[in-house]
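Task 17 of the worksheet. Students: predict the tertiary structure of the chain below and write it out as structure tokens. Keep your answer in the requested format; marks are given for formatting as well as content.
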Amino acid sequence: MSRLAAWLKARRFFVGAAASDKPVTLTHRRIFILPNQRGIGFCALILLLLLIAFVYANNLVYLLAFLLSGVLVVTMLHSFKSLAGLMLQKGQSTPVFAGEDAVFNLHISNPGNFGRAAIDIVLEQPLTVTLPSQSKITVRLYAKTRNRGWHRPGKVTVSSLYPLGLFRAWAPVQFDFKVLVYPKPAEQSLPFPDAAAVNGEPGGGGRGGEDFYGVREYQPGDAIKHIHWKALAKRQGVFSKQYGSERADELWLDYAQIQGNGVEERLSRLCRWVINAEQAGLRYGLRLPELVLAPSSGSEHYRKCLTALALF
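Model answer:
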């Protein structure tokens, strides 16, 4: 049992306690203190003074060494006190696209009657905050994302060098931080599937015998062959021709019909189509090998489609 306790304590020293969604209060079980380079030099100075005092039997040097030793002990206590009692709680995270920085909100409460100065918080990038007494703040921590799916950034480290920078007090905390990462959208605005696919018909090629019934302002994703070139030549603006099958304003985005070198490129193009279709106000559906989302529009449908692509 003692070996297990020692192993758990050593694990907390490096990575913190097990991940949790519950608020965490920093106590003596979570806070670690060690002298930094400046603190080690300060200890070496005290030892040197004691050696000089012993060799030369000098009481004033003894007094100075004991005075500095007292300062060292008091500094260590204040370093611990700068973190003790702080309460940390994770906040909500918003999905992002691959390659963007994920933002994690962390709520920090200082229930004490004294302020906490120069508290360093590190996820991937360092952040320094100061907490007045009886206060609560929310900090935004950033982490790089590279691949789609769930992204878990790891532990948060809260540390302090207060007051003299001789000791570093730190507390590694494991929150169940995670954020959904959507596929990276294709950089180019790709034309939507041909009109024959608008009503969910697989395949198709061009307009065929559809009736022309008007034009509308060009929107990203419109097929190049539908551009009203005469209006563009007369500098009247960029418009797209519309045909009978487009009156339903309904579009199917099918994974099986999209071209691409590998899964990620195809998902990237589908992601671009979803974004463009939502921005254009179209009703669009999504077909994946094991999932079909019926045509709809709006933020909820948009989120469902991107989530399906992220977890594909």
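Marker's comment: Residues 195-209 have pLDDT under 50 and may be disordered. The chain has two domains: 2-182, 195-310.
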